[in-house]
Amino acid sequence: MKPITTITNATIPIMKDNIDTDQLIPKQFLKNILKTGYGRNLFFDWRYKKNGTVNEDFILNQPEYSNAKILITGDNFGCGSSREHAVWALKDYGFKVIIAGSYSDIFYMNSTKNGLLAIVLSQEQRNILAAIKPNEKIIVDLPKQKVCYKDYNFDFDIDPLWKHKFINGLDDIAITMGYDKQISEYEIRIPRFN
Amino acid sequence: MLQSKARTMFDKIWDQHVITGKVGDPQLIYVDLQLLHEVTSPQAFEGLRENKRKVRCPDRNFATMDHNVPTVDIFNIKDEISRKQIDTLAKNTKEFGVRLAGMGTEDQGIVHVIGPQLGLTQPAMIIVCGDSHTATHGAFGSIAFGIGTSEVEHVLATQTIWQTKPKTMGIHIHGKLPHGVYAKDIIMGLIAREGVAFGTGYAVEYYGNTIRNMNMEERMTICNMSIEGGAKMGSIQPDQTTFDYVNGRKYAPRQIGKAIEYWRQFTTDDESAFDRIIDFDVNDLAPFVSWGTNPGMSVPVDQPFPSIKTEEDEKAYNYIGLEPGQTAKQIPIGFAFFGSCTNGRLSDLKIAARAIKGHHVAKGVTALVVPGSREVKEQAESLGLDKIFKAAGCDWREPGCSACLGMNPDQVPAGVHCASTSNRNFEGRQGAGARTHLASPAMVAAAAIHGHFIDIRKEAI
Ligand code: SF4
After folding, report:
1. Domain ranges of chain A
2. How far does residue B445's CA lie from ligand 1's centre (Å)?
3. Spatial distance between the Cα atoms of B375 and B106, rounded to a whole number of angstroms
4. Do residues B203 and B240 lie in contact, with contact meaning Cβ atoms separated by under 8 Å?
């Protein structure tokens, strides 16, 4: 995984609560063999009209938001089915940070496993970020645990373990590989009967 | 803390496998065996490739093809993505040196059927698979559970997994099963009584004289459906029945005496070791049939369907096209499915064949018999079971997951009621709009013959 320290980027607000994984990526797109390629179907039912054409009213389709990599959203983001594809789709689209009121447990775990930074800020703070102009940038400073915009400095919490992982670009596998010696020692102790 | 605290079999196996971390936090535990299939593994292998990683212990991984396999013409997969998943698994296992029971080979079958059958599944192991019915393997006195795709990749790369130790629950099952009542009815009855989430957060152990008297295939049926009660893991202590089953199989330990000696230590000291205990008496148990859209929505065959108490009940009745107060006898069966990792083993097919012998399926009923593996198919054929099924008007198929889930061509048409030996009756599970009714193989056989369920305790089939 790529290390994440400070991200300076434009935001895109979708201030709805309970955006579930079905809305992020409907089940017809799960039959695949890759982790990539889901981005074009992210928010499928909102992004495209029933007849398959692009829904220009939906914010993701508006050109002035096409460079935004930080999603500002509501409470209980990523609820519903446990599909990891929801995180894969957000990442594949280009999102680097999600700022929500809260997350479903499974979505949060899946995001940590895939290097998508999921931050919690209050409703008030998110309202401020949601109101800024397209293409205006905010700064997410992970080492300092701050989200900065103009004179605003919002602190956020993150588990020290996840923070360490993100900053060093470690994935779970890389971390576990740090225990290689213990694993090898364990393997010697396994009883064998062949 | 008291030093003499009683420990469960689960505690003993778990503790044996901890590499680092303390109870309460995620602990790094060693995985003895990972089973793989074509649906949940492609992204895991892709991840390895992207990061230039290898499979740490190829010989502790074993792959098969099951979910997408067509059961008529196995080499002719019409669905492009199904074919891609199958081809990708073949390519991935070859590239990474993982053993594969490929299409049409003698070892191929449903992942939870072939693990035990090949002797890969052994007591005291930690076993994982990207599939929620992995608890099946717990029947051998192992800790076995389903995992997600990132975790599959993690196990491939490190042969370990981070897990927080769950609490333990003992389920004491005792008494003598009445005539016409089977292991499937025990687990369905338990879930009907306790609900679909009673096991959430627990590792379950089934024990008691009923369990002791069961063969391995019956034990697997019970452990298989643990997840339907919310438990990721469900196990049974290993005993002579377990050892006799494992002994002599293809990948079983060659020094079996030594292995058994080692396995014998993995027992639960006494009931006080469990965090919670449930008691389940089977003496008066009836055959169960599911009426709704989750496995907890089941009733004894002679009891009426319940009244509508929740929105979920209402939704279920609307989907399934039945009404409160009706009984299983009134379900118009149009489809019967024999198979799956719950009831697709030889003993299940024997029971179904015995019930169906000399009869014919009712007019308008489509009946599929799908052995859980190629070995099950061949054994069944050597006993002439295929002829019995065919004479009764059933389709005798190639092994695979088949109509257990609508992912391959075997699907139940919309609106049709299917008597099924599988484990899930979710909306759309067996095909869009399909109406699933879970039951034991004997009950499904009777339903196929009569065109509706009957009480097999009372009526001659
Ligand atoms: S038989 Fe059904 S439950 Fe079992 S592994 Fe296959 S699809 Fe899953």
Report:
1. 7-158, 159-194
2. 20
3. 7
4. no
**Nearest residue to B131 via CA among B224, B246, B220:** B224
The pTM of this model reads: 0.89
Burial category of B9 from C-beta neighbours within 10 Å (exposed 0-12, middle 13-18, buried 19 and up) = buried
Cα B371 to Cα B378: distance, rounded to the nearest angstrom: 9
Task: Look at the domain A7-158 and name its fold.
Answer: Aconitase; domain 4 (3.20.19)
Most informative mutation of B41, B373, B422 for ligand 1 (most atoms within 8 A of CB): B422
First-to-final CA distance of chain A: 39
Question: How do residues A128-158 score in pLDDT, each as one tens digit?
Answer: 999 999 999 999 999 999 999 999 999 999 9
Spatial neighbors of B191 by CB under 8 A, at least 6 apart, are B198, B225, B228, B229, B295, B296, B298
- Cα B395 to chain centroid, rounded: 22
Among B30, B37, B38, CA closest to B57: B30
Helix, strand, coil fractions of chain A, as percent rounded to 5: 35, 20, 45
Q: Closest chain A residue to B53 measured between Cα atoms?
A: A173
In the block, tokens 């719950």 appear at: B342
Round to whole Å and give the CA distance between B375 and B175: 33
In A, which residues are within 8 Å of B51 by CB distance? 171, 173
| Cα separation, A3 vs B150, whole angstroms | 19
For residues A21 and A104, give the distance between their C-alpha atoms in angstroms, rounded to a whole number: 10
Which residue in this structure is represented by tokens 């009940």? B313
Distance CA B348, CA B387 (A): 16
> Is B43 part of the contact surface with chain A (CB cutoff 8 Å)?
yes
Pick the closest to residue A111 from A91, A87, A82 (CA basis): A87
Rg (CA), chain A: 19
Quote the CA–CA distance of B387 and B378 in Å, as a whole number: 12
Residue B34 has pLDDT above 80, yes or no: yes
Asked if pLDDT for residue A105 goes beyond 80, the answer is no
